[in-house]
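Quick one, T. Sequence first:
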Amino acid sequence: MNRREFIAAAGSAAAVSALPNALRAANGRDPIKAVLLHLGNNMWAEWLPDDFVGEIEPRRVPDVKLRCQDALWRRAVDHAAAKGLNMVVVDIGEGLVFPSHPELAIEGSWSVEKMRVELERMRKLGIEPIPKLNFSATHDAWLKEYHRMVSTRPYYKVCKELIRDVCEIFDTPRFFHLGWDEEHVNYQKKCNYAVARQGDLWWHDMLYTVKCTEECGVRAWIWSDHCWWSEPERFFKLCPKSVVQSNWYYDNNLHGFDPNMDAKGDGAKVRAFAKLEAAGFDQIPCGSNWCSEEHIKAGKNADYVMAGVVGLARKVIAPERLLGFMTAPWAACTEEKLKWGKVSIDSILEGIDQLAAAAG
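Structure tokens:
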């Protein structure tokens, strides 16, 4: 797809109307109440050559053994079902042995058979499993060496093959979350290797993954933060309305939920819910009980955030375009201690509780 083709496709209503009805349906089911669970965790790591002689911060050392514990994963899923949630977004990363690219697996990565058993178990619990692979260059350490091949022919080939693998394994899911958040140099300042697409190249590659997903009969879903910065008007012009949006706001800086706030960054994030509504996008707003440095320094938690996101979204998003809500605890299914004092699995369970209470 050349520059003229992708811009034409993005701006054309025909690009949406050509999709199967299943992809265009807005809100034909019960409102979504979803939790993001991490099978893989190498979305914030940094792969280095085997003979690398420097030092790397411990938090960026990639997992070489799957961190997710099976019993705790099942506990989180079971708790979600018990609390009335109806969707789990599986952040796959390095957690699956992909049929087309088994070289991306690490010790403990789930086999296809194991994944299918768990998908069936979730469905029997009333949970709709939705896959997620993050193709943002800030969060794609799970791609190993392909992370350093961004926007090349081998990269496009592997993206297409992985999307196809996952759509088949998940039995043509309703949605496929493609990530695409935080691809900006500011998020990679401490990385030994940094790459961030911008301008037409970012649009080409993002739309390429959308195209690969839709070719599998699945609706694409992305994080919305690209509309906060860097020519946001282009976002509303070029992003197809078929792509489900998850604008996320965690009140990182303790500025609250006032859409009229002038606080740099937070104001744009809060106002994005209404802007996406005005542009006609279907949305699944996302909150979290994850604690920022500001929360920790102030001796506060973020347990109020999910209710704030739900309240704001219901005020500014039309019911027919508000598909539901998601919580992203940003914690692994382990018993490790988080920097804000909680045990990781406990933080996940509490995040589920907060979404259940806020969304009703």
